[in-house]
Design a protein that fits this description.
The chain is elongated and about 105 Å long. It has 3 domains: about 45-330, Alpha-Beta Barrel (TIM Barrel), CATH 3.20.20.70; about 350-450, no CATH class; about 460-570, Alpha-isopropylmalate synthase LeuA, regulatory domain (Double Stranded RNA Binding Domain, 2-Layer Sandwich), CATH 3.30.160. The protein has helices at about 50-55, 65-80, 90-105, 120-130, 145-155, 160-180, 200-215, 235-250, 270-275, 300-305, 320-330, 350-365, 400-410, 420-435, 440-455, 495-510, 555-570; strands at about 45-50, 80-85, 110-120, 135-145, 185-195, 220-230, 255-260, 280-285, 460-470, 475-480, 485-495, 515-520, 530-535, 545-550. By secondary structure, it is an alpha/beta fold. The structure holds 3-methyl-2-oxobutanoic acid and zinc ion. 3-methyl-2-oxobutanoic acid binds next to β5 and β6.
Length: about 575
């Protein structure tokens, strides 16, 4: 024990321990000859959004009818063709919403609505009422099959649970005949809820029994949805469970195997990805993984993972800022800044070496180095999801000169000569260290303006006139504020800049040795401004940069001269 701080234990053997003995390891599936690890994902699955049901059920404040409508519109825009619209027999709001989209003809051609229902006769009848008049419907029937729930919740034998499911299937069949006769394309989806906590042979048995009751065909398949209602094991075990199920299910070609993973261990996406490799064809999930407890599968991450591997995700996620905004508005849950592909910081580099590598990668891509996306530290092009390369580099105390150069160049169009950058970066570094946080582009710009453009000092340019002389030279007559006095200066030279420098030197007796000069346009069009970056040296060889900006190139140059002289006086 540490005598000064008893809570700091130096003896490992007597260290405090978590109560891990309360828990037992999940028993893996005995599937020695598994084949899924060699498979690769090369095609998007059938996606089904459960935002309006599983996602909505998990909210502190469930969505209002207006919010449901907004979320529905977004899901349609994103391209979902199967959308679970609610649990109409359990919630009047859900019932009303389903009726509204049917009656107001808001379901686009080719989109199927899905409704969840427990295996109980009165609920099944009410659900059928809710979907009456819809063109394409998936009736999603579920009951829990888990070993634990059979024991502690229902006190039912396996046979009794199978009977419950098959009886309910029969009730769905009987109550949907009128719908089908009136032209509704109806599919049954059956979920053995808590599939992953169910004995595998029993899960197959109950699904096979439901299939026998429903009689699907390869042309008119049933959807068998295998939820990891609570994620309990590593994703490879889920994949084994899916491969086991597919191998052992009779009439496999009459079923679509669907996955529905939750995220209790933080691997909901990985589980669905491995489950897809194991042969599943359809995935249920929500935008950004909103859902019970730690959430559902995050459809956006999974789809974008495919996209980043060159696979068409079959969802349109280009306007990510809009998807984020609508999701946040409807769920009232903010998207984390590190949310894959969508968070505010996910394409941002603060570290100097990362910034440098990104800059070089971008230059390589922009120069046509490769048609593939090959930029270090950026798995995808931020522009593909409505973000911009400009936002990738941000500056704090971890950043170096590359970050400063990037911000000036990409936010303000100013490209600094190397020695000026080397001089200005430590100024930015000091500001970030003093502040402790990020220095936003406008703050960096302000620091640059204060240091090199609006320089306090004895001289200010008031006015000037330049004349072209008949000998080809130029003269310059300027009014300069020198301390409290206004002074007229006059000089001649080969050009206006030369003439102004000579005027300053001769009239003010100020030595001016220009060693560096560059001028370029900052932007284009009628409002275009020129920037002049200029350096003078003194007798000791010290270099003083000054910068001028104006719509007039001569004014920009004169201002840069005045700024550099003022800096010489300052330092
Ligand atoms: O997580 C789950 O098991 C569910 C079912 C109703 C499919 O949401
Ligand atoms: Zn769920």
């Amino acid at each position: 024990m540490n005598a000064e701080n008893p809570s700091m234990n130096t003896d490992n053997a007597t260290a405090k321990k978590m109560p891990f003995h309360k828990y037992k390891p999940f028993q893996p599936v005995a599937l020695k000859d598994r084949t899924w690890p060699d498979n690769i994902i090369d095609e998007a699955p059938r996606w089904c959004s459960v935002d309006l049901r599983d996602g909505n059920q998990a909210l502190i404040e469930p969505m209002t009818p207006n919010e449901k409508q907004k979320m529905w519109d977004l899901l349609i825009e994103v391209g979902f063709q199967e959308i679970e619209v609610g649990f109409p027999a359990a919630s009047q709001t859900d019932f009303d919403f389903v009726r509204k989209i049917i009656e107001e003809d808001r379901i686009p051609e080719g989109v199927t609505i899905q409704v969840l229902c427990q295996a109980r006769e009165e609920l099944i009848r009410r659900t059928c009422e809710a979907v009456s008049g819809a063109k394409n419907v998936i009736f999603h029937l579920y009951n829990s099959t888990s070993t634990l729930q059979r024991k502690v919740v229902f006190n039912m034998s396996r046979e009794e649970v199978v009977k419950l499911a098959t009886d309910a299937t029969q009730v769905v069949w009987d109550n949907t005949r009128d719908l089908v006769a009136s032209g509704t394309n109806l599919t049954l989806e059956y979920s053995p809820e808590s599939y992953t906590a169910t004995e595998m042979d029993f899960a197959v048995e109950i699904c096979a029994a439901v299939m026998q009751a429903w009689k699907p065909t390869p042309e008119n398949k049933i959807v068998l949805n295998l939820p990891s209602t609570v994620e309990m094991a590593t994703p490879n075990i889920y994949a084994d469970q899916i491969e086991y199920f597919i191998r052992n299910l009779p009439n496999r070609d009459s079923a679509v195997i669907s996955l529905h993973t939750h995220n209790d261990r933080g691997t909901g996406v990985a589980a669905s990805e491995l489950g897809l490799m194991a042969g599943a064809e359809r995935i249920e999930g929500t935008l950004f993984g909103n859902g019970e407890r730690t959430g559902n599968l995050d459809v956006i991450t999974m789809a974008m993972n495919m996209f980043s591997q060159g696979i068409d995700p079959r969802l349109y996620l280009s306007d990510m800022p809009k998807i984020v905004a609508v999701s946040e508005e409807c769920t009232k849950i903010p998207i984390h800044v590190r949310q894959p592909y969508a968070g505010e910081l996910v394409f941002t580099a603060f570290s100097g070496s990362h910034q440098d590598a990104i800059k070089k990668g971008m230059q390589y891509v922009e120069a046509g180095g490769d048609t593939d996306w090959e930029v270090p530290y950026l798995p995808i092009d931020p522009a593909d999801v409505g973000s911009s390369y400009r936002e990738t580099v941000r500056v704090n105390s971890q950043s170096g000169k590359g970050g400063v150069a990037f911000i000036l160049e990409h936010h303000f169009g100013v490209s600094l000569p190397r020695s000026l950058l080397l001089e200005f970066s430590p100024i930015v570094q000091k500001l970030t260290e003093a502040d402790g946080g990020e220095l936003k582009p406008d703050m960096i710009w302000k620091a640059f303006v204060n240091e090199y453009i609006e320089v306090e000092g004895p001289y200010q340019l008031i006015d000037y006139q330049v004349h072209s002389e008949s000998d080809g030279g130029e003269t310059c007559q300027a009014k300069v504020q020198v301390g409290d006095n206004e002074v007229e200066v006059y000089g001649a030279g080969s050009g206006p800049i030369d003439a102004f420098i000579n005027a300053m030197v001769e009239t003010l007796n100020e030595p001016l040795n220009v060693v560096e000069y560059q001028e370029y346009a900052l932007n284009e069009g009628a409002e275009a401004q020129a920037i002049c970056i200029l350096a003078i040296t003194d007798e000791q060889g010290n270099r003083y940069y000054g910068v001028g900006i104006s719509q007039n190139t001569t004014t920009a140059a004169f201002k840069s001269i005045i700024a550099s002289v003022n800096r010489k006086w300052q330092i």
